[in-house]
Amino acid sequence: MRARVALLTAAGLLLAGCGIPTTGVVEAGEPGVGVHQDVTLYFVRAADGSLVTVPRRAQGTVDAATVVTMLANGVGATEQKAMGLTSALPPPVPAPSVRTQDGTVTVDLRAPAEELSGTAVDQVVCTLLANRVSIAPRSPTLTVTVTAEGTAVPQTSADPCAGVREFWRPGPTKPPPGDPKSSPATTFQKPPPVS
Questions:
Q1: Nearest residue to 73 via CA among 57, 90, 59
Q2: Which of 12, 23, 130, 162 has its CA 20 to 30 A from that of 57?
Q3: Domain residue spans in the chain?
């Protein structure tokens, strides 16, 4: 028994004397991001063509490319059948090109402009603006440019995200963070006409 106590005491002295100082909580950078993040996607109610928000979970870090890919993958079978949702975006083949730089996101949908509606552009713009905090956390604004094979495709209105409904609620909802109604610094910019 004495040998065991002596051994434990020696081990404790060795560990205490190894030269590693004790520290408290060390603050370094921003809080860690969990395995899953919430994402807001904008789809179309088939019954009336209006935009509705649909919450989804993304694995890992959420950036503009992740959000656009999730949107381009479309609605699930349950959302389509039970909730009557659809998408104005073409199938994601080839995948949209997404570039992000200094608070600007440029999305090329890689489909002929004549095949895309203003509603498709609205879906992309509103989805990116709704997820601004995840996409550009250090930028006070987010500028979104949408093209189709390099050609500008117009939105349906100057403020397509206003009055959007959540699919489970009957009336307009409070705009999500990053939407133009809740963040005056968030903007949409149409690309210049391609000559």
A1: 90
A2: 162
A3: 33-188
